[in-house]
Each structure stands twice: as structure tokens, then as C-alpha cells.
């Protein structure tokens, strides 16, 4: 049973518009959430994180929102750029223990 | 050389072969991990080593055997694999194993070893 779910396998967005990637989780004990980005032939790289004590964290064009009651988080990219085209993984951890990853969402930003 | 490096990048092996994947980190981290990424599936944690001691074995079949001789090196020894073991095997490291909750333990991944079992 997957504890972290990314229900959209892929997303296509026009350059300059907003990209919204979604992630749902089932374990209410998760207290730290991260997004990783992966280009082909490269390993995933850390993008942005959020602690359960917050509901929003922003870093440049990237903002992560956390809705604990809905067990949902989302990553917003504004404005989207062609270089943002990659696979995005959502991950969660409980009390600083091992990360549980989602299956990833492929983002394609069209120019 | 910096970061996390994995060798080989690609490996094709038969079911009766014995091979090893190697991972080396130059970040001074204390924890190292093996993850498996199969197509359209979440990254699956296989093993965790913290200060050279194995702290996690995620019900991985014995045909996968990890080895961590020091904090900088991690191996995954492969023996009698099955075709369904074909996947991308990712090595990662973090400053400490327990520390993700305070934002100090993000994982740094290598580029992965693409394994094909015939």
C-alpha cells in the first residue's frame, strides 16, 4: 500500500504559466515533506521541503503548500520554464526517519 | 571529485552472474542508502547504513547483499538475480540518518546504475 501517492503520471504546461504538482499521503504521522527533481540520466536532486508546522514554504519560483487535514501537498512553479521539464518526486518522513517516495510526475514545459 | 558517484552506470548480467555496484560519496556524510527505482513505481528503500552499521533492511531478498567498508563507500553485491530485478539502482547519502525532520538530512543521490538482468 503506497503511503505517498502522486496520482498524475504526467503534466504538460506552457512556458510562463503555472505548474501545479500534487501529492497525497496516508500516514498522519509524517511530519516532514520534500520534493525532488530528476533529469534523465541523473540522480534526483533536492528541490524544496516543508515541515508539518508550516503550511507554505517558498524558494524563488517554487512554492510548496501543505494541507495537513487533507493530507495533501502541492508544488507550484511560477513561471514555468523549459528547463523545469523533469520528473518530480514527492517524499515524506516520520520523525526524521527514512523517506517514503511517490512514483513521480513527469513535467513537460512547452516553449 | 564531489558528490555521490556510482559505477558502473550500466550493467547487463545473466541470472547466474555475480556482479557488484559501487557507490562513493565525497560529502563527509555519515549515512548511505540503496534505493531501487522500477518503471512507474516509487523509489523503494533497500538498505541504510549509518556510521558503517546497517540500520535498515527493507525485506530485500538475499540475492542482494550490501557492504559498507567505511562511511564513504557502499557496495551492492548481486547474485542469481531475476529479470524482474532489472531497474535503476540509486545510491544516496545524508549527513545523518535521523535528521530529516529538522531539514538537515536531505538525501544526495548518485546518478544511478541501470541494471538489466537477462
What proportion of the residues of chain B form beta strands (DSSP E)? over 45%
Q: Pairing-aware structural class of the strands and helices of chain B?
A: mainly beta
Principal-axis shape of chain A equals: globular
**Helical proportion of chain A, percent range:** under 10%
**Number of separate helices of chain B:** 0
Largest sheet of chain B: 7 strands, mixed
User: Secondary-structure element order of chain B, as H and E?
Assistant: EEEEEEEEEEE
Compute the gyration radius of chain A: what is it?
Answer: 13 Å
N-to-C CA distance of chain B: 33 Å
Question: Strand tally of chain B, please?
Answer: 11
Order of helix and strand elements from N to C terminus of chain A: EEEEEEEEEEE
The averaged pLDDT of chain B comes out at 88
The number of helices of chain A is 0
Largest sheet data of chain A: 6 strands, mixed
Hey, which two chains have the biggest interface? A-B, 28 and 27 residues
Amino acid at each position: 500500500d503506497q503511503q505517498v501517492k502522486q496520482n498524475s503520471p504526467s503534466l504538460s504546461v506552457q512556458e510562463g504559466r503555472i505548474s501545479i504538482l500534487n501529492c497525497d499521503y496516508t500516514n498522519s504521522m509524517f511530519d516532514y515533506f520534500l520534493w525532488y527533481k530528476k533529469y534523465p540520466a541523473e540522480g534526483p536532486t533536492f528541490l524544496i521541503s516543508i515541515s508539518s508546522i508550516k503550511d507554505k514554504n517558498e524558494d524563488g519560483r517554487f512554492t510548496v503548500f501543505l494541507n495537513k487535514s487533507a493530507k495533501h501537498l502541492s508544488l507550484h512553479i511560477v513561471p514555468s520554464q523549459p528547463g523545469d521539464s523533469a520528473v518530480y518526486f514527492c517524499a515524506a518522513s516520520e520523525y526524521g526517519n527514512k523517506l517514503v517516495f511517490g512514483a513521480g510526475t513527469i513535467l513537460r514545459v512547452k516553449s | 571529485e564531489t558528490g555521490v558517484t556510482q559505477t558502473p552506470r550500466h550493467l547487463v548480467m545473466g541470472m547466474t552472474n555475480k556482479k557488484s555496484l559501487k557507490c562513493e560519496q565525497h560529502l563527509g556524510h555519515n549515512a548511505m542508502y540503496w534505493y531501487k527505482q522500477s518503471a512507474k513505481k516509487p523509489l523503494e528503500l533497500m538498505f541504510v547504513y549509518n556510521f558503517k552499521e546497517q540500520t535498515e533492511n527493507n525485506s530485500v531478498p538475499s540475492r542482494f547483499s550490501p557492504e559498507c567498508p567505511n562511511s564513504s563507500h557502499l557496495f551492492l553485491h548481486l547474485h542469481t538475480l531475476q529479470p524482474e530485478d532489472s531497474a535503476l539502482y540509486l545510491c544516496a547519502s545524508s549527513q545523518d540518518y535521523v535528521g530529516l525532520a529538522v531539514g538537515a538530512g536531505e538525501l544526495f543521490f548518485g546518478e544511478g546504475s541501470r541494471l538489466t538482468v537477462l
